[in-house]
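User: My collaborator and I are trying to settle a disagreement about how two of our proteins should look. Neither of us wants to argue from intuition anymore, so we agreed to look at predicted structures for both before our next call. Could you fold the first one, then the second, and keep them clearly separated?

Assistant: That sounds like a sensible way to settle it. I'll keep them separate. The first protein:
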Amino acid sequence: MPSAGSEADAPPAGTLRSAVSALPLPSMRLLILVLIVLLAALQYRLWVGPGSRADLHGLNLEIVAQKAELERLRTRNQELQAEVEDLRSGEAALEERARDELGMIKGGEAFIQVIERSPLPAVPAPPDTEPATPAPRHKKSSPAGPKKEPPAREERQ
């Protein structure tokens, strides 16, 4: 009968168990430490580092925003293309645009422009006392005499 430590209970040669069980205890601790550090490095990269899940989520959100912007721009381009085609083919759109944007009228029509007045803003009451004004400074006159300013032109309306 084989004993507990016999070769019959030992795993076949060349397997990982045989390699690990053959290592002395300090080497085993070093191997476990290296594997834990490797696992921690891979987890860091997965959750925090470049190309992480957070980066992937941010990029997916950016893709969704870009697709929405692209769809908005496609719709706008279709509207502008329809307007261009309408202006090229029909006179009604051209006439409407000339009336609205350029203020043009047909012969025999009268142009009436209505201007709505907005209420005037409330004017604050003047203060009871006026602030003191500084005394005017006297300029030294030059030997040629004081300079005269040209008279202000009045514009007629």
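The second protein, kept apart from the first:
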Amino acid sequence: MSVALLNLVETRLADHRPKRHRLRPFMKRCAVALVLQVREGELCVLMIRRAERPGDPWSGQMAFPGGRMERIDANGFATAVRETEEEVGLVLEADECVGRLSEVNARSRIRGLGMAVSPFVFRLRREVAFAPNHEVAEVVWVPLEFLLDTDNRETMVWERKPVSLTLPCYFYEGRRIWGLSLRMLDELMDLVTGPSGGRPPWRRD
């Protein structure tokens, strides 16, 4: 089942036309890696829990390896590969990239254009040993089938005065998955199940 699910994801990604943010030429750029691997009969996606750091708006959150584009990066793909190696010690190869998802806008403040985040999807067929750096508290494999099960989808209240929003989330073994990471996962799951796949819709950029 999991191998078939991985093959389906690869097939759908090959035909997928990800959206690019219309203001990306004027925005800061960032890229992340969604790494898929079949592990013990389950198709899993690699996630990290960011270390607690003062002043970091995403401190302690579940995320994907990645970060800001630097001048040394030829493109977003290069950023995702470099940042993944720096953060978790995983060296990704070009032939392991099976596609990309639509850009999302990361905003740490209400004002400003934010940052265009480009998600790249990779398929991993080899065993690896991770070496997380100081930015990463832990590395976690999350089963995609857990996320596809709508019974596991919950809601949370996000507050930043005077705004209060009810947002979707998952709790996987005590870890909350929400926000930008969940937007990316939802698009990946939409490729498998079709739009929404029975998951309650929510506002997206």
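Some points you might bring to the call about the second protein. The mean pLDDT is 90. The CA atoms of residues 105 and 191 lie 20 Å apart.
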